[in-house]
Design a protein that fits this description.
Helix 4 packs across helix 5. The chain is of the alpha/beta class. The radius of gyration is 16 Å and the shape is globular. The chain has a 7-stranded mixed sheet with strand order 1-3-2-6-7-8-9, sandwiched between helices. The protein has a two-stranded antiparallel sheet with strand order 4-5. The N and C termini lie far apart (51 Å). Helix 3 links the parallel strand 2 and strand 3. It has 7 helices and 9 strands.
């Protein structure tokens, strides 16, 4: 049933029951993003967007472990919005979600609105002195879908990260493609029963057919989550694209 599906969809093993409860009841619109500040001169930024029902707090332990001195990590909180997949219950989400297959109707207005928010965050970093090729946008699940869509609409960045996700509004491309030369890292579990591996692979193939530079990695026995090897690969990928300067 839908309640069971959504309990599985809350997608971070690092997110405790208490954190989920807080995320569901506190409006993200009034909450500042989690920011892991640089400990040396700030020369690069990673913007990372969580999945359905989570918050920026859910991923802060991950980036706290792999943080690099010159990089600022910004982990925003999604607003509480009605989610059709959950019978209209309000929960943290970047846009409404009707289902998790390629033929499900999509919340075009909500996706575009959130993508505009991502663009504004990127532009704020650039205005603050961080070059576009020193900024990575990424996310997990619906946050990864948002990062792929927003990143591909933006002029080239240092990179895009999409974990256990898909490319939404795929018919908008190639018309809206601006970041075709931006390197992309996508990771997906072969045991993901929520966002199927095939959905991630087809998204990667589509981006590749548009000229995108996608590195797609599959992780054995990983469900709709993350694993140590994926985090290690992610750390290596970020390090290669945002070295100290």
């Amino acid at each position: 049933d839908e309640a069971a599906i959504l309990s599985m969809l809350w997608p971070r093993l690092l997110l405790s029951t208490v954190a989920v409860s807080r995320a569901l009841h506190v409006s993200a619109m009034s909450r500042s993003p989690v920011v892991i500040p640089p400990t040396a001169k700030h020369t690069a930024t990673v913007l990372f967007f969580h999945g359905l029902g989570d918050s920026g707090d859910g991923w802060s332990p991950v980036f706290g472990e792999i943080r690099q001195p010159h990089i600022k990590y910004v982990l925003p909180h999604a607003p509480n919005v009605p989610v059709t997949l959950n019978g209209g219950m309000r929960m943290p989400a970047w846009y409404d979600l009707h289902g998790l297959d390629a033929n499900t109707p999509e919340d075009e207005a909500g996706i575009v609105r959130s993508a505009d928010m991502v663009t504004a965050m990127i532009d704020a970093e650039i205005k603050a002195g961080i070059a576009h090729d020193r900024i990575i946008v990424g996310g997990f699940s619906m946050g990864g879908a948002l990062a792929l869509y927003a990143g591909l609409r933006h002029p080239p960045l240092a990179g895009i990260i999409g974990l256990s996700c898909w490319l939404p509004l795929r018919t908008h491309f190639p018309e809206r493609l601006q970041g075709g030369s931006t390197p992309i890292f996508m990771g997906h579990g072969d045991s993901d029963m929520l966002v199927r591996l095939d959905m991630g692979k087809k998204s990667a193939d589509l981006i590749g057919s548009l000229g995108g530079k996608v590195e797609f990695k599959t992780y054995r026995r990983m469900g709709h989550s993350a694993c140590d090897q994926e985090i290690a690969d992610l750390n290596q990928w970020i390090s290669a694209r945002l070295p100290p300067v």
